[in-house]
Predict the structure of adenosine deaminase.
Amino acid sequence: MPGGGASITALPKISLHDHLDGGLRPQTIVELADEIGYQLPENDAAKLTSWFSSQADSGSLVDYLKTFDVTIAVMQTTEGLKRVASEFVHDLAADGVIYGEIRWAPEQHLQKGLDLDQVVSAVQQGLEEGVDAVRSSGRSIRVGQLLSSMRQTERGTDIAELAIRHRDRGVIGFDIAGPEAGFPPSRMRGAFDLLAHNYMPATVHAGEADGLDSIRSALFDGRALRLGHGVRLAEDITIANEDDENTYVTLGDLAQWVKDREIALELSPSSNLQTGAIEQWGDEMIDHPFDLLYQLGFRVTVNTDNRLMSATTLSRELALLTEAFGYDLTDLEVFQINAAAAAFLPIEERDELSEAISVGFERA
């Protein structure tokens, strides 16, 4: 591990794929549940932490997603949303994140009478409170909202319109999430058309619980500028060992397209293991196609997906990859520069992020 885990935490980092409802503090869940009378599987924060980890270690994305019933249940009020959002920013900053894109699905937070605009505004208030508090402590962080539409529902156009309405009030992009297999991006083609006509960028969960057709649909129906996970793009890469000394790698048309256009892959190593996204290659970190994609020149980025469910941080994910593949600080910097280049920000601001990353790594 380059410099030890503590130094990785101190390095400036960028988080592109981090779910708001997957990053709650267990103690906060306990307290919010008590306020609204919601019955938790465990009422002690430590035991609840263990429950999330065990439930998430299922090898199935569908089972993994069931843990969100608990977190979403305590995020149905203005105060609950504000608290969760504010603490989310604090936790990112404590992990050395200087820029974070925070995704969540507003349509899942209407059970107590709030409407779509109200829940987005509540989250934005919480994010701004968190940013102000972090900055007052002498640290630097910036965040933006990615609004996700659940792919199994029919609200894609509603959420696209919502994102456009709030684009100058904290929302920087659009996403679709939820069960991937059987719910291709093509089902929301109208929403993606609307976003494109309004110059709103989109990232799409694809290549996690489904394969190459899902990725194709994300790119060509969803006009995705990034792929949420995208790990199964490795299915379009052929490796042939002709003898002990010569290995030949061939990219399929889809993989070549993604590489040539530098479409970022929002890889989440621990989550990919938990959900079975990489089961065809193995069940340990060393089996993850991350290094293959990196060595072949794809724009790989490192992400947490859901910090609570995976019991992880961005620093931990970097440390796990370093341990598995022998990366050094130069490699870790590349991952952050890749993320800066893929951020849903104007190019001048992306360049500023890249410079901040370079300066921080030079000081390490």
In short: The chain has a mean pLDDT of 95. Residues 5-355 form a domain with the TIM Barrel fold (CATH 3.20.20.140). Residues 23 and 88 are 7 Å apart (CA to CA). The beta strands are 13-19, 97-104, 142-150, 171-177, 203-206, 226-229, 237-241, 247-251, 264-267, 300-302.
